[in-house]
# Entry
Amino acid sequence: MRRAVACLCAVLLLSACTGEDKPSSVGQSSGPAVPVATAKPKVTVPKGPAPTDLVKEDLIVGTGGAAFPGQTLAVHYVGLIYETGKEFESSWDSGHPFPFQLGNGNVIEGWDKGLLGMRVGGRRQLVIPPHLAYGEAGGHELGGQTLVFVVDLISASGQVGPGEDPQQTS
# Structure
């Protein structure tokens, strides 16, 4: 039974992974299926002192539509603490992608800024300093920490904001 549920989830997840070069102005993107990662990545924390600005690096450039403010994204992610390399959270462990609306402050600012323009099917590493994560020490258990995330963009759907140019991001 467990295997059947896992197979069904995989089919549903893959069927939701579509995109095109430019996101649709309304509704979901359409077009050919975009390959997506199927396994939790191994994350390596960069060497040296923690950066003071957001660092983003595409580990895999996706081939689907780009992510823009107002769209609903579904992502898989792994989060580590920069200084220790200790994993603190992973959507892969739950087996379910994490959905959120980009650019509305529903996630930490480093995600809103760091995932902008990412293409469906891609994998991006973000190194996020405290001021773009959970702030200074004391307010949140991860306050004062620089964080490393590896994020896989499974889907991006919904409206692209007025005046947004899908080709002017990175």
Remarks:
- The chain is about 15% helix and 25% strand.
- Confidence is low (pLDDT under 50) at residues 1-31, 164-170.
- The helical segments are 2-15, 91-94, 109-114.
